[in-house]
Structure formats: structure tokens, C-alpha cells
Sequence to fold (288 residues):
Amino acid sequence: GSFSLSNGTVDLGNRMAAAISDGNTHNCAILDDGSVNCWGRNNVGQLGDGSNANRNAPVSVDLGTNTTAVAISAGTDYTCAITNTGAVMCWGGNFYGVLGDGTTSNSNVPVEVNHSTGMRAVAIATPGYGACAIFENGSVYCWGQSYTATAINGPVTNGSVHIDFAVGRTAVAIDGTSDHMCAILDNGSMNCWGVNTYGQWGDGSCSSVIPSSGCDGENSNTPVHVNLSTGSSAISISTGAGSTCAILDNYSLQCWGQQSGEFDGTSDSILLPHTMNFTDGADIAYSD
Fold:
């Protein structure tokens, strides 16, 4: 069946949306009572309603008795949510083990992630076929595919991978797209890791395999320091396909990585943060 909306409105009944996340072909929302509704394409169970039928109206996701969602992130044909107990639950396509249950079998109902940390999760990001979470002590663990989780382009099906920041540093915010991740740390600095084809790390390096690109770096799951403006701290981050943007504590906007003229008017990749002609920003998001 169709998974498009006929009039652009979403009927949540008598409930209000408290948070929303859009995947590549589906959407999910946390409602004001902590329940979860999803709608859109459902070919691998990414709506979590126990079926594989596409839906153009929201359907309820059963998280379990007395279990509600406090955070949600929809990825590439899968969805993950943090519950009121601090557990991470995911559902949908289990490509590269992104559901974190130790298998690569799809699930059209929520399964609990075996991240092996013994801690409560406080934030979640679902870039591509990999997922990363911030835990209660500010540490970050990832699972699934690619450099978001591991230095080889394969699955993590046994627990999760710890992302090592500098000694004493912890994460306070995280965001990721199909192939790279970035985090704001507790001192306002930024780290990025994953694929760096277009300089999306923001450290002046790049890893393109195109001979004429001048790039000779390597992709890595080791976080690197982003060279933000001297003395500045990041307060909000957002990642896109091959690029990254951050709002700083002076409310200026800096972006770097792949572009089509929207950053500095050229089509050249920007390897270091570039200050945009934009002021007084407080939050930021990419559009697909």
C-alpha cells in the first residue's frame, strides 16, 4: 500500500507529539504520555507494530508493560528508542546488527539492545546502519555498521564498541548521518569520527580516494578534535551527508565538509569550520 500522506497532516488522536524523528522512509513520534507512534514504509518492520504493512496513519508501538519512551531516533529502515528505565530498544531492519540484539534478523517489534555497558542510556543517534548512544556517565558506545561503530566495514553483533575521547572528557550531545558521527564534549569542544571523504571531521584532513582530491587521510573510529574558532564552544550540532554544522556559544554558525555552494559559494569541500553569514542561532538541523 501507499506510505505517503494525502494532506500533510498526521492524526495522533487526542495526544500531542513530544518528540519526532524522521528516518529515510518512515517517521516516529513520542506522544505526551510517553507512548510511541510510527508511520510510513514498513517493509522490514521499521514501524514496530508487529506487521510489515506500510502505513499512512500512525500505528502504536508496544514497548512493554509500564514502559515509555524518553528519546527516539529513526534511522535507515529501523528505529531506536530510550525507555524510562534507560534501556535502548530498536526495531526494523537489522542490517549489520544495528538492532543490537546479537543477530542480523529483522524484527517488526521492539527488541532490547545488548550494549553490555550496564548503564542507562540518555541520548541516541541512528546514522545509516549504525547506532550510537550516550550513557549516564557521558561515555559513548556504538553498534551496527561502518565507521560509526568499528574500523572495519562490517557488523558489530556482540555488544557494542566504546568510542574513546580524550582522557577526562565526556559527551553531552551527539549526532550522526550515514557515515560519520560528531559529539559535543563536556568542555564545549567537538569530536568527529567515521568517514572523512569530504572533510566532515573539521580537522583540516580528508580521506577521498579520488586521485586529484589531494586527500591522503584514512577513515577511523577514533574521534578527532574539530578546529572550531579559537575560544569558542559548541552548543548544538547537526550532521548531513558528507558535512557538519555547529552553533557556537556566541550563536554564530560554522559548517564544513561537502557543499554545493551553500557554505562559501563554491563547490569545493571545506576541511575546516567556515563561519556562515548567519547570527543568533540556538539550534540546528539538516533536511534530507
Q: What stands out?
A: DSSP finds no helices and 20 strands in the chain. Confidence is low (pLDDT under 50) at residues 149-153. Residues 181 and 204 are 16 Å apart (CA to CA).
